[in-house]
Structure formats: C-alpha cells, structure tokens
Design brief:
The chain has 59 residues and is an all-alpha fold. It is 92% helix and 0% strand. The chain contains 2 helices and no strands.
C-alpha cells in the first residue's frame, strides 16, 4: 500500500506544469461543488439526524 502511494506521488513529479494546473483546477471545482452541496443540504441532514435522536431518546 505504501509503495502504491509512493508511486502515485512520483507520477505527479513526471507531469508538466500544464497537467498539474489542470489537476488543481479539477480538484478546486470538486471542492467547490462539495461545499455547495453541504451548504444546501446541511440543514436538512441535520434535521434528519435530530429526528433520529429524538425518536431514540423518546423526546
């Protein structure tokens, strides 16, 4: 497992500058999408968990 991670990190060393920028942009877009989904669905998910806690505690 450690060797696989080492080889994965070495593969980035072989990339040119443009490839690294493309990877960074893709990761940035994924992060923005995840944050947007969490902001939009966060309260609904929290409400669901609160309902579960209330039903378990008998409140």
């Amino acid at each position: 497992m450690l060797m696989m991670m080492y080889n994965f990190l070495l593969s980035f060393k072989k990339e040119d500058g443009q490839g690294m920028v493309e990877y960074a942009l893709i990761i940035g877009l994924v992060v923005i999408a995840v944050i947007a989904v969490l902001v939009l669905l966060g309260p609904a998910i929290a409400d669901q968990f609160q309902e579960i806690v209330d039903s378990l505690t008998g409140a």
